[in-house]
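Aim 2 progress update. The chain analyzed this quarter is reproduced below.
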Amino acid sequence: MTPAAFHVEAADYATRQALLHGVRRAVFVDEQQVPAALESDDLDPLSHHVLALDADGHAIGTGRLTPQHRIGRMAVLAGWRGKGVGEALLQALVAEAARRGWGEVTLHAQVHARDFYARNGFLPEGAPFTEAGIVHQTMRRRMDGAMRVQDADQAEAAMATVIHRARRRLLLGCRGGDTALLAQPAVLQALRHFATRRHDKQALVLLHDGEPAAMPTALLALLQRLPTVFALRLPADPGDPSLAPASVINDNGDCYFRPMGDRFEGELCLDMPAPARQQDALFQRAWDAATVCEGFRTLGI
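Predicted structure tokens:
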């Protein structure tokens, strides 16, 4: 299928507020039943806005960056969802924050969209809360260094974003509960997205449990469906403490690594080629010394 034609541009609020509010009213007020009085606020004239336009110049999506370093009012018309509009809007806002020299940005994600933000580098913080009658989750992305990963929810988000941002090469060093983590919704969706792209790609998976029975059903089904994409190996001595730490590395300068291996605590590095290269080298050494997972051969993997 040919991607739908649209583009994202900065929008001066004084001259284009009718387009911005038109999209926001359609999504928030008409569709989600948010009170009309909450759709706009005093931050609108002070914020940086972006607008997605279709090939005919019709507004199809919006978003803003407030002086409080917060992304918000992300809205895409129903007929344009799932076509990359939201991601393009989000990337434009993150790029603007980076251009301004901001170290981080936050947002309040509606819980149904939490996986979307996780795939784009935002880690959840704290418990969900209700805002405008809708359950939200605070999420944060740093742009001036590594992000600390401290719990299962953040681990899922970190793994998802490294996989989602991969181009053609992905390295997965699995330890502890990683196979279960790889089957979590945001991670599995990112894996499917990577594995089903049209261009050539390869995912090297270093397992510390070579038995198919230890693999979650959804993940095993993906490996069987696309055996030419995924290569699996087992360390010669899985208990060797000198092996590379658990890690996910892509060819885009991103990595999430956990020094403790079987714990979630670690660091997510986005657009940081130096640590990504270091983790890549550790993984490659472990991969070269590893053996084929015989238990998966009978399944065609």
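The first helix runs from residue 13 to 31. The domain at 6-142 is CATH 3.40.630.30 (Aminopeptidase). These observations will guide the mutagenesis experiments scheduled for the next reporting period.
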